[in-house]
């Protein structure tokens, strides 16, 4: 067998598990569950949620929608599919951190 892999799996939630939780919460349109899964997922990323949102507009928009659902009194139905899609499409951070790129520039239109 492969005991090394089995051992590694027990050190904490695997990225796959966290993504599964996030997908389930998003696709059941559960804003509270999505927020928790999102925080757990973000902790495993090399950047903060705010940094990811700052460089990927669909994620920023989806987070705005999630926050609106969590903190507004309207109680309107929140649909998590956009957020899940944004997370899946999020470009990897490695490309952004390229020293030749323009990662040092702030966004032109801060939200």
From TrEMBL:
Residue stretches in coiled coil: none
| DUF7939 domain span | 16-93
Pfam families linked: DUF7939
Q: Give the InterPro entries listed for this entry.
A: BatD, DUF7939
- Taxonomy, superkingdom: Bacteria
Q: List all membrane-crossing ranges.
A: none
- The protein's name in its UniProt record: DUF7939 domain-containing protein
What organism is recorded for this protein?
Pseudomonas savastanoi (Pseudomonas syringae pv. savastanoi)
């Amino acid at each position: 067998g492969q005991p090394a892999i089995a051992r590694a799996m027990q050190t904490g939630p695997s990225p796959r598990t966290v993504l599964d939780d996030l997908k389930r919460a998003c696709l059941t349109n559960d804003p509270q569950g999505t927020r928790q899964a999102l925080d757990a997922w973000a902790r495993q990323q090399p950047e903060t949620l705010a940094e990811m949102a700052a460089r990927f507009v669909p994620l920023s928009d989806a987070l705005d929608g999630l926050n609106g659902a969590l903190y507004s009194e309207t109680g309107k139905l929140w649909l998590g599919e956009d957020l899940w899609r944004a997370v899946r499409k999020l470009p990897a951070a490695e490309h952004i951190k390229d020293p030749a790129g323009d990662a040092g520039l702030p966004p032109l239109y801060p939200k």
